Amino acid sequence: MGQESSLKQQVKKKLMEYIQSMDLEKGNRLPSEEKLSTMFGVSRVTIRSALKELEMEGRIFSRHGSGTYVNPMARRIAFNLAVPELYENIIRKGGRTPDVRVEGVITEAAGEEAVSSLGVSLGETMVAVKKTFFAGDRFSMYCIDHFPKEQLTREQMQSFFNPELSIFDYLYRYKGRKAMWDTMRIQTVTNRQFPEINGPAGLSGEECHPFLLLKGINYDKTDTPFVYSHTYVDTEVIEYNMIRKKAYKYEPFY
């Protein structure tokens, strides 16, 4: 199951690259599943599965009896909230150079949010990794990832200060756990509600600045939550969008 999913994601990535390279002025129709299968050297089942995901994301659409087409509007969207990506890649897609700074790696006692999000025991030792993301020289995001410390050594804890890898890379390396999917709760907040943003964002605290707060919970292949995060996004720099496929069924009229 894991290998099939990995292959599908690889094919999906190649399809996205192919879509980005298309000259839509000459047409936005994709080749048939059979031709795509030959182009990418995979089965039609894998192609169909990858196309289905792209259609659910609104990047392509199908017309019965006609074929599958690229949604031109989807190519203009750099940051799709429905598609999980590393924040560094989101910044690159916006045409800026990412600069990631680890503000701190601390241990803390699990509170009520950790208990409800991850099912840990109240007071259990947790790790919090705090990172600031800049797009060029502009602040864009402040992220805090929380996860149980468990058997992590001091040396392993120190490695989280290296921003070249994400915490998910390290947790896979140290604990063998992969993030397979997540849930996201979205709120609009201000720095006055969460003054911890002021330092990383370079705010004095006197002004009131809005942020998008993304509260995520990440699950492994056994559907067990193991990381929860708070990410404060400056939407003046990172503008998230979504494309939604309408599933409304219209009643026939006569």
Automatic annotation (TrEMBL):
<dbReference type="InterPro" id="IPR050679">
    <property type="entry name" value="Bact_HTH_transcr_reg"/>
</dbReference>
<dbReference type="GO" id="GO:0003700">
    <property type="term" value="F:DNA-binding transcription factor activity"/>
</dbReference>
<keyword id="KW-0804">Transcription</keyword>
<dbReference type="InterPro" id="IPR000524">
    <property type="entry name" value="Tscrpt_reg_HTH_GntR"/>
</dbReference>
<dbReference type="InterPro" id="IPR036388">
    <property type="entry name" value="WH-like_DNA-bd_sf"/>
</dbReference>
<feature type="domain" description="HTH gntR-type">
    <location>
        <begin position="5"/>
        <end position="73"/>
    </location>
</feature>
<dbReference type="Pfam" id="PF07702">
    <property type="entry name" value="UTRA"/>
</dbReference>
<keyword id="KW-0805">Transcription regulation</keyword>
<dbReference type="Pfam" id="PF00392">
    <property type="entry name" value="GntR"/>
</dbReference>
<dbReference type="GO" id="GO:0045892">
    <property type="term" value="P:negative regulation of DNA-templated transcription"/>
</dbReference>
<dbReference type="GO" id="GO:0003677">
    <property type="term" value="F:DNA binding"/>
</dbReference>
<protein>
    <submittedName>
        <fullName>GntR family transcriptional regulator</fullName>
    </submittedName>
</protein>
<dbReference type="InterPro" id="IPR011663">
    <property type="entry name" value="UTRA"/>
</dbReference>
<keyword id="KW-0238">DNA-binding</keyword>
<dbReference type="InterPro" id="IPR028978">
    <property type="entry name" value="Chorismate_lyase_/UTRA_dom_sf"/>
</dbReference>
<dbReference type="InterPro" id="IPR036390">
    <property type="entry name" value="WH_DNA-bd_sf"/>
</dbReference>
